[in-house]
Amino acid sequence: MAEISTRHAGIGMTSQRTRDRLIERLRAQGIRDEVVLAAMNAVPRHIFVDEAMASRAYDDVSLPLGFGQTISQPYIVARMIEIARDGKPLDRVLEIGTGCGYQAAVLAQVARKVYSVERVKPLYQRATACLNELGTTNVTLRYADGSVGWPEMAPFDGIIMAAAATHVPPALLEQLAPGGRMVLPLGAPEQSLCLIARTAQGYCETRIEPVRFVPLMMGKA
Ligand code: SAH
Q: In terms of C-beta density within 10 A (0-12 exposed, 13-18 middle, 19 or more buried), how is residue 137 classed?
């Protein structure tokens, strides 16, 4: 037990002080939602990266996860959740592209229930192990092609896609609840972070800022 809590708390480059500096950087980059900043502060990112890279876990960079995938940059994780929240509590959230599970762990701090889908089996397994290690109980993971969403669990009041597509997968639009907000990277080769807000009248798309994500792939790997 003692060993596990030391691992959670972190030492040296993975300590709380290092994490505090990350939060200060996120503030400087324009993240304003205190609920999101508190969630970023609460989740130990070094748990989700390879031991060899743990000392870089609180740098604001994306890091390789293996299988050609990356753990998203902390800024982008915070930004996507801030946009999805829009200052209001989230109830049910769908994430497409669990990767190592870091963003799902942060989402778990701000949403009542998180559903997250990953198409690469070893990543799904690793995310399951990391979230169990953290004792997270409100995240349900699925090994599947997330481009069709998760119809059995719909509707969602927030959808976050962590891989880039040229068009919004239609299934995701359907599974977004009225009043819900979807945040995703769109476009190729240039990508923009986009917000799609569903209103009683339809869908409203807003482009937010340029981003770089791995592509959304079809089928399971
Ligand atoms: N949310 C992660 C980011 C992972 S990178 C984080 O917290 O860092 C994007 C992930 O999307 C990769 O793991 C990739 O395998 C996954 N992905 C790509 N296409 C997918 C699809 N159709 N369904 C589910 N996951 C997909």
A: exposed
